[in-house]
Specification:
about 160 residues, 5 strands, single chain, alpha+beta, 4 helices
Length: about 160
């Protein structure tokens, strides 16, 4: 997690992973490729839809979270490499739960994402790895919570 070994990560640690600006162009592009519902693609249809105007796909908010998460991890790892430090291997995520899209995200919104370590445990079946539990969320420019999920990730032990 952010270039740290499992043993170095503290419960309660909060990492702001970055911000993503949702523009009309990227909302439409994402929707055309991955979520072609009318309220993500067409202004007139969106006015009649559940949000009253064009809205980003929830999957777009999730993909933007991943983009920010990977970028902040890559930057932290590059910093450690430049300082001559040994890096932990990165592991996959075995899953997530409680994915919630709490408010619509509209073109013009900027969502800032963060991750908070909520738990960690050693894995007897995988002694090289530890499991981190994280609460991940995103707030729009007004401070409103728009997105959240509970995730898990494997991190190499020292």
């Amino acid at each position: 997690m952010i270039g740290l070994f499992f043993d170095e990560v503290e419960i309660g640690r909060e990492i702001v992973t970055g911000s993503y600006a949702f523009t009309r162009e990227n909302v439409l592009e994402f929707a055309k490729l991955y979520d072609p519902q009318a309220f993500h693609l067409d202004d007139a249809a969106a006015m009649e839809g559940p949000f009253g105007k064009l809205a980003a796909s929830g999957w777009h908010t999730a993909a933007a979270w991943m983009k920010c998460y990977v970028a902040v991890n890559d930057a932290a790892r590059a910093e450690k490499v430049a300082a001559g430090n040994i890096l932990p291997e990165l592991g996959p995520s075995p899953g997530f739960r409680n994915l919630r899209w709490l408010r619509p995200v509209f073109p013009g919104d900027t969502v800032t994402y963060r991750a908070v370590i909520t738990g960690k445990r050693e894995l007897a079946s995988l002694p090289k790895w530890g499991m981190l539990d994280m609460l991940n969320d995103g707030h729009n420019q007004n401070g409103e919570l728009v997105y959240s999920f509970e995730g898990k990730v494997l991190v190499q032990r020292r």
